Amino acid sequence: MSSHHRVDDRHLKNISSELAAHGLIxxxxxxxxxxxxxxxxxxxxxxxxxxxxxxxxxxxxxHFMAWRRRQPQNLQNPLDTWSREVIDGISAxxxxxxxxxxxxxxQPFQQWAMRAEGLKPSPLGILMHxxxxxxxxxxxxxxxxxxxxxQGAHDPIHLCDxxxxxxxxxxxxxxxxxxxxxAYQSCLAHARGPQGGPCRTxxxxxxxACPYGADYxxxxxxxxxxxxxxxxx
Length: 233
Fold this sequence. Notes:
Structural class: alpha+beta
Distance between the termini: 44 Å
Strand content: 15-25%
Oligomer: single chain
């Protein structure tokens, strides 16, 4: 498909099918407004539309691990590398260009996600999804030269507004999350230290304390992988 062809519903279904083969899903999208500072489309002009690519729960994990076993043991940033390999291939087949959360200059992925799916941040900063809770992620985005016929975000319920006890703010031993924001250095020191074993093996205690989206909670091995990446251990 050449980049000057419009992306219609059939193409959206085909993109979704190709992503599903890797455990990934489309996470909504939108058309950029006039005058916005936006990245370039494949044609070198400002993109007109964006589709977000991500995951619900740990669905990509088996696909990623099968790929990982074929890579050098000392590969840096393997999950990002896998995501790029998968999404770059799909973007090329559908006349898009791909951008990623770790790319510089950084794109406003969280703002894009809020706009595409109508989500709001939890007290932990992670966007709260009405079905997936805190157990979801964005892996990249596809930029197109044309507008895409995708349904705009509705106004989903924000589960954090219904949560009275806020257990996500009461489970961390060093109170890494509070009204003052995220105490990055305290969290990092604890995760690396002798008392941080439960965090290293099972993931963030505050995140795991959230009662929503439990069916999508990442398995312990997935949480340990992400914690090791964060803490450098």
